[in-house]
Structures are given as structure tokens and as C-alpha cells.
């Protein structure tokens, strides 16, 4: 009888230990997953910042092309009557291809 009681108590202790251990591990894993999701959200924010930087770079490129267009029009050949015979499109197409 005493041996059965000790065996029963030992089985209960083992069962309780297993439940506690499993519960703690699951809670810990969930916390890690939440932290991973937070990191992923941070990566998304970094990508948004990169996109904003790219947009600014594109604006700079457009400004360069516009500055070249003004220079081409100012330096185009003018005939005796003061008219230019070179269109802006033909003058800009080789220059815009460089940028």
C-alpha cells in the first residue's frame, strides 16, 4: 500500500512537471515569435525609407535633365533671322540617354 502511494505521488509530480515545462516553453516561444514580427515590421519601415530616398534621387535626375535642356536651347544655332532650327526633342534625346 505504501509503495503504491509513493508511485502514485511520483506519477503526479512527473505529470505536473511536464505540464509546467511544456507551458513555459510555449509561452517563451510565443514571445520570441512576437519579437520576430516586430523585427519584420522594422524591416518594412526601412524599405519605406529606401523608397523615399529613391524618389528624391529621381527628382535630382529630372532636375539635371531640365538644366541640360536649358543649356541646349541657349546654345543652339540661330540663323540670320534669329530663329532656331533644332527642336528641343532632338537635342535632348542623346543627352537624356546619358543620365
Amino acid at each position: 500500500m505504501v509503495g503504491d502511494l509513493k508511485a502514485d505521488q511520483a506519477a503526479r509530480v512527473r505529470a505536473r512537471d511536464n505540464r509546467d515545462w511544456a507551458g513555459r516553453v510555449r509561452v517563451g516561444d510565443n514571445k520570441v515569435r512576437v519579437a520576430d514580427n516586430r523585427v519584420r515590421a522594422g524591416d518594412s519601415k526601412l524599405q519605406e525609407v529606401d523608397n523615399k530616398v529613391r524618389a528624391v534621387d529621381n527628382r535630382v535626375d529630372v532636375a539635371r535633365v531640365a538644366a541640360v535642356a536649358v543649356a541646349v536651347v541657349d546654345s543652339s544655332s540661330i540663323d540670320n533671322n534669329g530663329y532656331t532650327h533644332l527642336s528641343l526633342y532632338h537635342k535632348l534625346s542623346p543627352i537624356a540617354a546619358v543620365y
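DSSP finds two helices and no strands in the chain. The chain has one domain: 2-98.
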